[in-house]
């Protein structure tokens, strides 16, 4: 059993439409804590900073969570990733253009944490849907 007074968080993104990691996606980390937070009416969100996914789709340098964190939010800025992917695809096959709209411009994932635990939260992403889970 861990005796740490904080939780830790990591993430990665897999673009399931191509079966490859999503490189270059900005990820922001925010935390909230305090009395009553576990019931949805805790303190304000505190922006902690962020990172960008590497060639393996991973953020290896997310900031540490402050002591007393009860909830974490990961904000993934996916619109620029899909816009670049779409622009690259249009250069390769101009006849396959669609409306150019990105259905999910961002993905926000909020989850509860307890001290001493590590939370790996992978994002499985495609242009028209996403899913997340607690990984290991």
From TrEMBL:
GO terms for molecular function: hydroxyisourate hydrolase activity. It comes from the Bacteria. The keyword Hydrolase applies. The keyword Hydrolase applies. Transmembrane segments: none annotated. Residues 9-135 form the Transthyretin/hydroxyisourate hydrolase domain. Homotetramer. This is 5-hydroxyisourate hydrolase. It comes from Streptomyces capoamus.
